[in-house]
């Protein structure tokens, strides 16, 4: 084994041993992506659909069909309630609206008489309020088109770009694995590197006749192993708990590993630059999270101006695009899969180079 | 004549407008224990960094074991062993793991590494603790382990930064014995220390730096001799007037006088009768509360040369 390979192996194993000596912080790091997954899913589940109660005072077939239209609107979590129960839930803030289907709903419709549909809204949350204001009329239109097909003459004729719809949570879950991998990568390697300065052990590395690049690669390798463990765990949760089956499983593995490289190299860079764990940890999280939100976690990034530029130069944009392809089989806004790949490889090379240069300059005690 | 192990020629290091080391020229010979002393900010660390290849001199040259440190730092590091003041040990790892890691960094052949580790752990009397985490070691044990680690790749030159700082008296003696044994094995040892007693006990020669300049370079005995062969330490009832001090300086054999409040220190050389003359003159002008006569120590030499205590 050449000296450089021996140094890479020794530094990597040593950093892994040190990480295992701090099992709690390492475990927290490894489960970080799952934590994010849980957090964002909760956000998506609670914020995606407005909870409403339907008070059904008519048991005719048209009334039943109307309730079905509300349920299929993708805007509501619908449950049936009696008037008193619905009112209580609305006042207590457990639901944001009550739609009352009046007693003569079916009969009045069949005799073509106008119906006033009472809709009570708790307008505390403008987002949910707007959902109700927008989606209740849409549900009425949709119901009318289905119940009286001859009377509605204008219809939308949809043609889809993708072969299948992708749920909001399914898309987001895949993006979250990417941010989880990225934050874990930056965090673990920043901590591994900054600790060398805090404990003065960087002197041992500095005075060794080893190439700084070999030391850098050894540190990146250790961060890579820890981040990959976190990535595997998060991916398993997405596949088996969230239920998103990857279209291209091999791409998941390959892209996952590729995404980890620039992250851990950036971590070595940050750790060397700051030389303190207390400073490196908030910077790693504080700089990566905003970048994540600009890089298309909820859908392809389509920002304009400065935010668009940030998204364009963010490695997370390309990482998310690659991972969405691996899981869902489609391309997002990027020109081609090969371009995404090349850009991410470029980021990896750049990050390793920057980490190597900073480590080389930073190792003089 | 053998090649010097360290050769600094007109080595200058500037940081913007500040000159940390100014045209320093010195040589360290093979199998010598060489002490580099100086108060804080004297340029010791800068000199050591230049010798280790950690910083480039602004001008002049630094050669270690015949290699230009700037041109070939990796070869120099391969042949240099360092015991840093902070020990730089991985406290969460075992003594064994620390040594093995060092062996990998310095590319010690695998077939040699295990044997060397055992030998050195025996030497520093840590063989029975080789599987323990370094964090559980005392300060003296850590220093001894750091010494074993520095010797693992069999360096020709060993640099010890404050080798006994924070170490109890018993461990200090043991470390001194190890260092003297290294010299006996033909290794060259460079030491920086704040303990003049240590420098005096170990070093063949001492270089004293002040404000980046070399102010003295000689053996401890010669340095002391330069100061004088007898020191009179006196405590007076009242300080002496400047005219009396001038009169004291005029006495044959008086080499140095230093005054601090009511304390008077007079160094004498090659004049046995001078002691009587000094005491007579002093007692003529004030009452002598206490007098002590001893051989000069390095502290006196250091103070005379730099005007400061080593720990200032």
Mean pLDDT of chain B: 89
Number of domains of chain A: 2
Task: Report the biggest beta sheet of chain A as strand number plus sense, adding barrel if it closes.
Answer: 4 strands, mixed
Strand order of the largest sheet of chain A: 2-1-3-4
- Strand percentage of chain B lies at 25-35%
Structural class based on helices, strands and sheet pairing of chain B: alpha/beta
Estimated radius of gyration of chain B: 23 Å
| Shape category of chain B | elongated
Q: Judging by the overall fold, what is the CATH architecture of the largest domain in chain B?
A: 3-Layer(aba) Sandwich
- What's the end-to-end separation of chain B, in Å? 39 Å
The CATH class of the largest domain in chain B, by name, is Alpha Beta
The secondary structure category of chain A is mainly alpha
Listing every helix as H and every strand as E from the N terminus to the C terminus, the arrangement of chain A reads: HHEHEHEHEHHHHHHHHH
The total strand number of chain B stands at 14
């Amino acid at each position: 084994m050449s000296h450089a390979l021996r140094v890479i192996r020794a530094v990597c194993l040593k950093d892994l041993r040190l990480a295992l000596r701090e099992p709690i912080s390492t475990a927290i790091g490894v489960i970080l992506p799952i934590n994010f997954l849980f957090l964002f899913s909760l956000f998506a589940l609670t914020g995606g659909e407005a909870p409403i109660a339907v008070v059904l005072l008519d048991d005719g077939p048209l009334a039943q069909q109307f309730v079905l239209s509300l349920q299929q609107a993708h805007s509501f979590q619908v449950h049936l309630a009696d008037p008193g129960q619905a009112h209580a839930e609305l006042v207590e803030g457990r639901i944001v609206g009550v739609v009352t289907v009046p007693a003569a709903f079916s009969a009045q419709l069949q005799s073509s008489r106008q119906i006033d549909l009472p809709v009570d809204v708790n307008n505390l949350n403008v987002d949910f309020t707007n959902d109700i204001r927008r989606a209740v009329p849409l549900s009425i239109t949709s119901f009318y088109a289905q119940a009286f097909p001859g009377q509605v003459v204008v219809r939308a004729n949809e043609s889809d770009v993708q072969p299948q719809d992708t749920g909001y949570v399914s898309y987001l879950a895949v993006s979250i694995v990417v941010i989880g991998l990225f934050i874990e990568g930056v965090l673990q390697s920043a901590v591994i590197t900054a600790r060398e300065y805090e404990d003065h052990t960087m002197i041992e590395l500095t005075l060794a006749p080893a190439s700084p690049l070999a030391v850098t690669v050894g540190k990146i390798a250790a961060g890579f192993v820890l981040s990959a463990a976190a990535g595997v765990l998060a991916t398993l949760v997405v596949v088996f708990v969230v239920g998103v089956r990857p279209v291209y499983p091999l791409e998941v593995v390959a892209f996952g590993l590729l995404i980890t490289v620039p992250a851990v190299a950036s971590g070595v860079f940050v750790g060397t630059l700051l030389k303190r764990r207390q400073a490196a940890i908030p910077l790693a999280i504080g700089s990566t999270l905003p970048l994540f939100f600009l890089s298309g976690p909820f859908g392809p990034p389509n920002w304009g101006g400065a935010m668009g530029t940030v998204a364009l130069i963010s490695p997370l944009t390309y990482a998310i695009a690659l991972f969405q392809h691996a899981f869902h089989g489609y391309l997002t806004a990027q020109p081609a899969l090969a371009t995404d790949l090349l850009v991410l490889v470029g980021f990896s090379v750049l990050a390793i180079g920057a980490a190597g240069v900073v480590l080389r300059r930073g190792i003089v005690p | 004549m053998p090649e010097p192990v360290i050769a600094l020629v007109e080595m200058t290091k500037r940081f913007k407008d500040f000159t940390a080391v100014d045209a320093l020229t010195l040589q360290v010979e093979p199998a010598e224990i060489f002490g580099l002393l100086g108060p804080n900010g004297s340029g010791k660390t800068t000199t050591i960094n230049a010798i280790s290849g950690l910083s480039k001199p602004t001008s002049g040259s630094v050669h270690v074991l015949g290699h230009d440190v700037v041109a070939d730092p990796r070869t120099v590091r391969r042949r240099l062993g360092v015991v840093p003041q902070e020990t730089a040990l991985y406290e969460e790892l075992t003594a064994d793991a620390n040594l093995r890691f060092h062996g990998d960094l310095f590319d010690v052949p695998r077939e040699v590494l295990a044997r060397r580790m055992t030998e050195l752990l025996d030497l520093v009397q840590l063989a029975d603790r080789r599987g323990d985490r370094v964090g559980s070691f005392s300060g003296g044990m850590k220093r001894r382990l750091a010494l074993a680690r520095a010797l693992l790749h069999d360096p020709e030159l060993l640099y010890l930064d404050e080798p006994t700082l924070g170490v109890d008296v018993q461990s200090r003696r043991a470390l001194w014995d190890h260092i003297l044994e290294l010299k006996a094995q033909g290794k060259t040892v460079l030491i920086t220390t704040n303990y003049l007693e240590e420098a005096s006990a170990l070093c063949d020669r001492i270089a004293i730096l002040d404000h980046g300049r070399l102010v003295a370079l000689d053996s401890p005995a010669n340095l002391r001799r330069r100061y004088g062969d007898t020191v009179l330490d006196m405590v007076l009832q009242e300080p002496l007037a400047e005219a009396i001090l001038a009169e004291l300086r005029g006495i044959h054999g008086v080499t140095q006088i230093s005054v601090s409040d009511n304390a008077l220190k007079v160094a004498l050389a090659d004049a046995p009768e001078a002691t009587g003359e000094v005491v007579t003159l002093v007692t003529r002008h004030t009452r002598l509360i206490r007098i002590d006569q001893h051989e000069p120590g390095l502290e006196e030499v250091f103070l005379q040369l730099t005007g400061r205590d080593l720990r200032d």
